[in-house]
Amino acid sequence: MTITTSIPSARRVRRLPDRETSDRLALHDLLDAELVGHLAVAVDGVPVVVPMGYARVGGHVVMHGSTGGGFALRAASARTPVVFAVTALDGLVYARSLFDSSMNYRSATVQGVLEIVPDDEADAALLALSERLMPGRTAEVRAMRRKEVAATRVLRLPLDDVVMKQRAGGPSEEEGDGEDHSTWAGVVPLERRWGAPVPSGLTPAGAPVPESVIALTTRASPSATLDEASARTA
């Protein structure tokens, strides 16, 4: 499945172009597995990069900011092009030379213009973002107050102009490459897991750990998809 057919050639992968992929499902897997991306924009001629929590909702990356300011909201209002980047490190590749050593990874850069989510869609998009970051937590806490909603602006970036690059597998090696094969070479995978919950200072001793936290910390991976939410709010 093709991500887009309109990416200018200047933004195509030049070095090791065989690692570029246009597989839409691979893109969704990456975006659904990660929690933080980096949003970049030029502000008064100076590049600014900020890490932001996000969710993929259908064909968009959704994030939120304050109505009181922030470069993301200003960029959306001014229709300034931005770039949003997400990277997953899957392992380190140990070759028999430092030059040939590498990483296994998946990365995507999305270029476009941020959109302010319309008011009639903002609540659903904000709920999808919350459920992506802390699944099930919404049902355990109080509803957002009107003042809090008014102070929050939901933004989205369409997944129309995307370049994705990835590497998997072991080091490059051949039987007759002249290397000393008694030197170990291979891959050290990187695995992630959630740690034991730590209660806040004002949480009473013995307070039960909520179901959302138990579910999160017992999952094998931080990844989760929002396909159902995507279908509702795209």
Automatic annotation (TrEMBL):
Organism's domain of life? Bacteria
Among InterPro entries, the record links this protein to: Pyridox_Oxase-rel, Split_barrel_FMN-bd
| Name the UniProt record assigns to this protein | Pyridoxamine 5'-phosphate oxidase family protein
Q: Which organism is it from?
A: Agromyces tropicus
